[in-house]
Write a structure and sequence with these properties.
The chain has 565 residues and is of the alpha/beta class. It has three domains: 263 residues, 3-Layer(aba) Sandwich (Rossmann fold), CATH 3.40.50.620; 160 residues, Ribosomal Protein L25, Chain P (Beta Barrel), CATH 2.40.240.10; 115 residues, Ribosomal Protein L25, Chain P, CATH 2.40.240.10. The chain is built from 13 helices and 25 strands. Strands 10-23-24-25-21-22-11 form a seven-stranded mixed sheet, with helices on one face. Strands 19-16-17-18-12-15-20 form a seven-stranded mixed sheet, with no helix packed on it. The two termini are 14 Å apart. Bound molecules: adenosine-5'-triphosphate and magnesium ion (MG). Adenosine-5'-triphosphate binds next to helix 2 and strand 8.
């Protein structure tokens, strides 16, 4: 596992070194152009965020171009909802509008088709009339050569005729494919006559019924980069064995020099307690384990956003981890620490009581209400102050009272004095219980001399607790989340990540008592509930707060443990 310290910083890394060298040598005449090429078959996750931030920041740093290109080559799984959603998510992440209009691989279908005919005419591609299963059986394996298709030596005329028939709809799905003619005994499996076109009688969300053959990713990807004049194609590591094939295609098409994109691979982002694959994420939705792509437990950008993760925190995290050449897994606590640090600076503080227990101050003047001044954000003076009503009837957190306190429990208990944040010192004198013996009301007295948070005689108080005034409090609810996967590496034991899913990872608490100023927060606000953590006010549901992160810096503990190990 990677620690915070052993990853290179983004400012200079093997990718920027390559770009610097290319600028020096004039390879692309000084141009830098990158892209982010998602397949619109789901919503974006935090792994994609890494690729987006990397490509976008490189273009920016080198005053180059960054494009969003939808790799929309599979009409069965893709749709325009995902296209729109991905763009929204990218703009949210980058906090800027994309300068260039998004591009689509489907815009290049004509060109790709023409190039495929060119390959056929050069004797470099053929129509194979075998079914998919046979073709994959014939691929062979590691150190085991594949088997030539009986259709491999069809004449150019026959291939051209058949390919045109494929295009015009003469065949049904799966009846034949177009394959590159490279070598069935090549060491690199990707070079064993890979499939370039499949027949799919499906409506495409952009091209409608115009096509019934669709290019494979392998055939479309490098050529799309070339068409767009991408200079640096940055891919995740799993594409490194495809590079040879991409180069082969470019060679056959005579795409050379400054027109030829250069591919560099970087490590995929992985997190503990997390799966990052659209397929698996989709499965969580289909199985109703989560509520949708934007469920706050999901590692999608939508989920993070609903949870309250600031885009700046995600970008800072991506910059911090930089790029690496070997795959590794980051602790999710590291990302959370970026979120916490960000919110510590920006989020206003409020008081809220999640599990209320009533406190009555017996020596408080009947009916009296006093406005207390509270600091909105100790990290930001410009956030100012607010007034909170204090009265003789309050709510405190249930677990801030213990009738028979354990050792080291310094909060409220019979005979014990605590400080109320922005309030007074109170001492517990009595407990009212229900029939089952559970405390339902605590009777206290307050010390009017402690208005400034200190006692004039200098007596020390070990605990400060938060509160809200009972008659002024407004009711809300909070959604609390635990890890969606209980194990660090989901599926490590059984091979099936979903086996490790935590079905109890969400709970909703109703009847939360909120200080009155919370009623004025605009939807989407993120606040710190003092002593409890950061919470995001839902955009739609009134007074529903999603817990973003707690206050404890778990990442610091991991670092400490590692140092001591
Ligand atoms: P998924 O399996 O989640 O669908 P993918 O790679 O198939 O991921 P694409 O939509 O094809 O999804 O990905 C678009 C780009 O995002 C690719 O260039 C890919 O390299 C990059 N990418 C995807 N996942 C990660 C990740 N975990 N870390 C870094 N980059 C990623
Ligand atoms: Mg994919």
């Amino acid at each position: 596992m990677k620690s915070q310290d052993d990853v290179p910083s983004k400012k200079s890394n093997f990718i920027t070194d390559q770009i610097d060298a290319d600028i020096q040598s004039g390879r692309f005449n000084g141009r830098v152009q990158t892209r982010f090429p998602p397949e619109p078959n789901g919503y974006l996750h935090v792994g994609h965020a890494k690729a987006i931030c990397l490509n976008h920041s490189i273009a920016k740093d080198y005053s180059g171009l960054f494009n969003l290109r939808y790799d929309d080559t599979n009409p069965v799984t893709e749709n325009s909802e995902f296209v729109t959603g991905m763009r929204e998510d990218i703009q949210w992440l980058l906090e800027e509008d994309l300068e260039s209009t998004p591009l689509h691989t489907s815009e290049y279908f004509d060109q790709l088709y023409a190039w495929a005919e060119e390959l056929i005419m050069d004797g470099k591609a053929y129509v194979d009339s075998q079914d998919g299963e046979t073709i994959s059986e014939q691929r062979g394996g590691f150190q085991e050569p594949g088997v030539n298709s009986p259709y491999r030596d069809r004449s150019i005329e026959e291939n051209l005729g058949l390919f045109r028939d494929m295009r015009s709809g003469k065949f049904s799905d799966g009846e034949c494919v177009l394959r590159a003619k490279i070598s069935m005994s090549h060491d690199n499996m990707n070079m064993r006559d890979p499939i370039m076109y499949r027949i799919r009688h499906e409506n495409h969300f952009r091209t409608g019924g115009e096509w019934c053959i669709y290019p494979t990713y392998d055939w479309a990807h490098g050529q799309s980069d070339a068409i767009e004049k991408v200079t640096h194609s940055l891919c995740s590591l799993e594409f490194d064995s495809h590079r040879e094939l991409y180069d082969w295609f470019l060679d056959q098409l005579g795409i050379e020099g400054a027109d030829r994109p250069y591919q560099t691979e970087f490590a995929r982002l992985n997190f503990t307690h997390t799966v990052l694959s659209k397929r698996l994420l989709k499965h969580l939705i289909e199985e109703k384990i989560v509520d949708g792509w934007d469920d706050p437990r999901m590692p999608t950008l939508r989920g993070f956003r609903k949870r309250g993760y600031p885009a700046t925190a995600i970008r800072s995290f991506c910059e911090h981890i930089g790029v690496a050449r070997t795959n590794g897994t980051h602790e999710i606590e590291l990302l959370e620490s970026f979120v916490r640090n960000d919110l510590n600076q920006s989020a206003e503080r409020r008081m809220a009581v999640l599990n209320p227990l009533r406190v009555t101050i017996t020596n408080w003047p009947e009916g009296h209400v006093e406005m207390r001044t509270a600091v909105n954000n100790p990290e930001d003076d410009s956030a100012g102050n607010r007034e909170i009503p204090f009265s003789g009837s309050l709510f405190i957190e249930r677990d801030d009272f213990m009738e028979n306190p354990e050792p080291k429990y310094y909060r409220l208990s019979p005979g014990r004095e605590v400080r109320l944040r922005y309030g007074y010192f109170i001492t517990c004198n009595d407990v009212v219980k229900d029939e089952e013996g559970n405390p339902i009301e605590i009777l206290c007295t307050y010390d009017p001399e402690t208005s400034g948070g200190k006692a004039p005689d200098g007596r020390k108080i070990k605990a400060t607790i938060h509160w809200v005034s009972a008659e002024h409090a407004i009711d809300g609810s909070v959604a609390l989340y635990e890890r969606l996967f209980s194990t660090e590496h989901p599926g490590d034991e059984t091979g099936e990540p979903l086996d490790d899913v935590n079905l109890e990872s969400k709970s909703i608490l109703e009847g939360t008592k909120l200080e009155p100023s919370i009623g004025d927060l605009p939807p989407g606000s993120i606040v710190q509930f003092e002593r409890l953590g950061y919470f995001h006010l839902d955009e739609e549901a009134p007074l529903l707060f999603h817990k973003t992160v707690g206050l404890r810096d778990e990442w610091a503990n991991i670092v400490k443990r590692r140092k001591n190990a």
